[in-house]
Design brief:
Layout lengths: L1 H30 L1 H6 L2 H9 L4 E6 L2 H6 L2 H12 L3 E6 L6 H13 L7 E6 L13 H8 L5 H7 L4 H12 L1 H4 L1 H12 L3 H8 L5 H5 L9 H12 L3 E6 L10 H9 L3 E2 L21 H21 L4
Parallel strand pairs: 1-2, 1-3, 3-4, 4-5
Helix pairs in contact: 5-16, 6-7, 6-14, 7-9
Length: 310
């Protein structure tokens, strides 16, 4: 009797896990706008690559997502260049070259038709390598194609534990989405959990996690991504994004970008953006977006002409 009761409990748990897993797989895009965006990145990159005229893919994280008015940019580029312009934007939240490198290989390099130009937007410290454990679940679920898993294991995930966690997140939505679901559940139970948890648990905030880097900054993933772009014949334009306080490009970052043939387009010196334009301390508001977009489309066509993207 006891054995049957224990078996019934185990079977009940397995059924519950199965139902939760099936529900998450069916509705995971509803849990997060970022997940919904990641599910469309393949089609975004493909559409830009097959586009007419000059094809430009904007790439980065939430900074460029909040800071760039894509329809206005597309119209302005088309008018200035007197040519059709096809654009798209890939901007998964909280990402850096660790995720960009693999997502770029998966969604752009793997395509037969590729964009002419990749416009890479980034904030202070965002071009540095960071520990893969910070984004392991998201890497597994969204960013790394199967053919590139050996590269990730060799360069980033050296231990059996980290590799096992990666594969679990790759196979199971309930594991991959855990970091997105947990705060929502806890917010329902504990008031202000998302805000207070990093302090109470002495864990990094999302901003600190984004900037987590090795003690001595490394740029292996940035260099690899730029190399892939060169090999694919895609020109790169790097654009430092505005912040409440002006920040300077690290000399090593500048060297890596220039040695890889990338253009650096910094329009921030022409902008007047008060702190009020950054309501959360990082991202531009709608007025700031208009100001930044207007400055960018004044200068980006000159860069595209210099790259002979016609």
């Amino acid at each position: 009797m006891k054995l049957n009761s224990e078996l019934l409990v185990v079977l009940s748990v397995l059924v519950l896990i199965f139902l939760v897993e099936a529900g998450l797989r069916q509705n995971q895009s509803l849990l997060s706008g970022d997940v919904a965006h990641l599910e469309t990145v393949d089609s975004i990159a493909a559409a830009v690559g097959r586009g007419d005229g000059i094809t430009v893919l904007f790439w980065g994280n939430s900074l460029i997502g909040a800071g760039l008015d894509l329809p206005a940019t597309t119209r302005a580029l088309g008018n200035t260049l007197d040519s059709e312009v096809s654009t798209g934007i890939v901007r998964p939240d909280g990402t850096t070259p660790l995720e960009w490198r693999y997502l770029f290989r998966k969604t752009v390099v793997a395509q037969e038709s590729r964009p002419d130009v990749l416009v890479l937007g980034f904030g202070p410290g965002h071009l540095r390598d960071r520990q893969a454990g910070v984004a392991l679940s998201r890497l597994a679920a969204h960013h790394v194609r199967s053919a590139d898993i050996p590269i990730l294991f060799a360069e980033e995930l050296a231990t059996f534990e980290s590799r096992a966690r990666f594969m679990a997140a790759r196979w199971l939505a309930i594991v991959a989405l855990g970091e997105r679901i947990r705060p929502r559940i806890m917010d329902l139970v504990v008031p202000r959990y998302t805000e207070l948890a990093p302090i109470l648990l002495r864990a990094p905030t999302p901003k600190e996690a984004l900037e987590t880097a090795r003690p001595s900054p490394e740029y292996r993933n940035l260099a690899a991504m730029l190399s892939d772009a060169q090999t694919a014949g895609i020109r790169v334009v790097a654009i430092p994004m505005p912040a409440p306080n002006y920040w300077s490009l690290d000399p090593e970052e500048r060297t890596i970008l220039l040695e890889a043939g990338a253009e650096i387009l910094d329009v921030r010196t022409h902008l007047i953006l008060s702190p009020e334009r950054f309501p959360d301390g990082e991202h531009l508001d709608s007025i700031g977006r208009q100001i930044f977009t207007a400055a960018l489309v004044e200068e980006l066509p000159l860069v595209l002409n210099r790259l002979a993207v016609r």
